[in-house]
Sequence to fold (124 residues):
Amino acid sequence: QVQLVESGGGLVQAGGSLRLACAASGRTFGNYDVGWFRQAPGKEREFVGAIKRSSTYHADSVKGRFTVSRDNAKNTVYLQMNSLKHEDTAIYYCAARTPIGIYYRTAPSEYDYWGQGTQVTVSS
Fold:
């Protein structure tokens, strides 16, 4: 069992930056695949990025602005968000799963463990 806790959300002006953290407890986190998702009001949960060991994959909508990374010593995965836009406003979730295969998982249903989410609001 893995417990995930997100932190780092808040209110930021357009063009600004935030770094979200996803801290894990219960298991060594380094071998898990971790994904970041977001959900805006009235919309479906959307894939943002993922990390598989040290390799990363990002959605086209955030590529070049957002970066997923991990610090295994701290059992934490990060989402660095730069050049934020109003449309990035959402609740951001991290999720984890035991790794299977070589492909990144981009569907919420493919992840087993979820955090509670952290609100990111970008003012225009």
Observations:
- The first strand starts at residue 3 and ends at 7.
- The chain has no helices and eleven strands.
- The chain has a mean pLDDT of 95.
